[in-house]
Amino acid sequence: MSHGDRVESIPSGFEKIAISENSPYAAIADTNRNIYAFQFHPEVYHSECGSKLLKNFAKYICGCESTWNMGSFAKEQMTKIKNQVGNKKVLCAVSGGVDSSVVATLLFEAIGNQVIPVFVDNGLLRANEREQVETIFKSRGIDLITVDASEQFLTKLAGVTDPETKRKIIGETFIEVFDKEAKKHEGV
């Protein structure tokens, strides 16, 4: 969905359950078949009662129980990681995105300097992204290895226009660069 998209009519069996400034059908439901649809982002900060909506959906529509919490999950996973890793090291690829950065941070919390986070600069990053990633890791006391492979990536991508071919080149080149860095570390 894009912010300019909007539903103009709804299928038979559905009823309007919410509207927004942009859409006369921000949420619809077919309660007989237990089908619900939303055309907005309940998870974002500025959606009023978005968290409550998601909680109610999970609990009352999907029938999920409220037995999970992030604190206990994180502690359990850190214990599992410590037990599995022992005194070895873990090489962790960091793309600069949220997922890999969170993984590297949680690994650091679990096993400290046994984690070796490697950030590959492929030359395709947003403006100042490399510096931002390096600053974030430094502020957390995590030694981040940055490999500047931008010339290697850009050379391999020169003249390539097909998106699928680009994706494959980027993936293969990342593996090459990461493998080369991995060979520099023992006990991983």
3D shape: extended
Can you write the helix and strand succession as a string? EEEHHEHEHEHH
Number of strands: 6
What are the low-pLDDT stretches, counting only 5+ consecutive residues below 50?
none
Q: How far apart lie the N and C ends?
A: 42 Å
Helix content: 40-55%
* Amount of beta strand: 5-15%
Structural class: alpha/beta
Main β-sheet, in a few words?
3 strands, antiparallel
Strand order of the largest sheet: 1-2-3
User: What is the tally of helical segments?
Assistant: 6
Radius of gyration: 23 Å
Mean pLDDT metric:
91
Task: Explain how this protein is built.
It is a single chain. Strand 4 (90-94), helix 3 and strand 5 form a beta-alpha-beta unit. The strands form two sheets. This protein has a three-stranded antiparallel sheet with strand order 1-2-3, with no helix packed on it. A three-stranded parallel sheet has the order 4-5-6, sandwiched between helices. By secondary structure, it is an alpha/beta fold. It starts with 14 loop residues before the first strand and ends in a 6-residue tail after the last helix. It has helices at residues 50-61, 70-85, 98-111, 129-139, 150-157, 163-182, and strands at residues 15-18, 27-30, 35-38, 90-94, 115-121, 145-148. The mean pLDDT is 91. It contains six helices and six strands, in the order E-E-E-H-H-E-H-E-H-E-H-H. Helix 2 (70-85) packs across helix 3 and helix 5 runs antiparallel to helix 6 (163-182). The longest helix has 20 residues, at 163-182. 10% of the residues are buried.
